[in-house]
Amino acid sequence: MKNFDDIKKQWLSKDKAKQEYKALCEELRKAQSVLQLEELSHRKRMLRRLEYSDMSDVITDKGRCACELSAADELLLTEMLYGGVFGELTPAQIAALLSCFVFQENAKTPKLAEELSGCLRKLHEYARRIAKLSVECKLDIVEDNYVDSFKPGMMDVVYQWVNGASFAEVLKDSDIFEGSIIRCLRRLEEVLREMINAAKAMRNVELQEKFEEARFRIKRDIVFAASLYL
């Protein structure tokens, strides 16, 4: 009987532990729900501050424009669109600047000409605005990390490519692996497609044509061949 009593105690102890585990899981689920509701509230506040939605949470025209963008940071791109940043740039500058949204490697930053470094400064300026507002709205973000996430390593490569340089010429002037360049240009083409739709949503024909021109100049040669082995 002693052995039976020991087994019974072990079973009761195990059953108690199971019940405590279930109770803790339920508490965790409730805590996560509260945190998610808080984050949702903070995000809604952010969207209202940026005028993507009104006080009744109805999406504005600006919000509908942001809905066209999913391949890159939609908030920053929309702010730059409405801030007139791209309207001041050539198609080549636009493509070079947008490469910062899709290039993720920690490549050595090349010395940029003023026509590109000025664009990059503008991007950083808008990124800091987004980060500061995010902090004000109690969203979890580190300003410098957010700004540094937009990497300029491909700007010069893209600028040359859009201005007609051959793939061999681009490779000669860059330390970036050719596969990385091809992936970046293909992702960039996708971003430009969405930017065209965003410009349409804004009813900005001039901007739409600039994005279309940039996309047309990117989509050529070996980069967009059906097979790179042909």
Automatic annotation (TrEMBL):
Example of a GO cellular component annotation carried by this entry: nucleus
Q: Which residues form the ATP-dependent RNA helicase Ski2/MTR4 C-terminal domain?
A: 54-230
- Which gene produces this protein? MTR4
One annotated GO biological process? maturation of 5.8S rRNA
Q: From what superkingdom does this record's organism come? A: Eukaryota
Q: In its UniProt entry, what is this protein called?
A: ATP-dependent RNA helicase mtr4
Family matches, as PANTHER family:
ATP-DEPENDENT RNA AND DNA HELICASE (PTHR12131), EXOSOME RNA HELICASE MTR4 (PTHR12131:SF7)
Keywords attached to this entry: ATP-binding, Helicase, Hydrolase, Nucleotide-binding
What Gene Ontology molecular function terms does this protein carry? Answer: ATP binding; helicase activity; hydrolase activity
Concerning InterPro entries, the annotation shows: RNA-DNA_Helicase, Ski2/MTR4_C
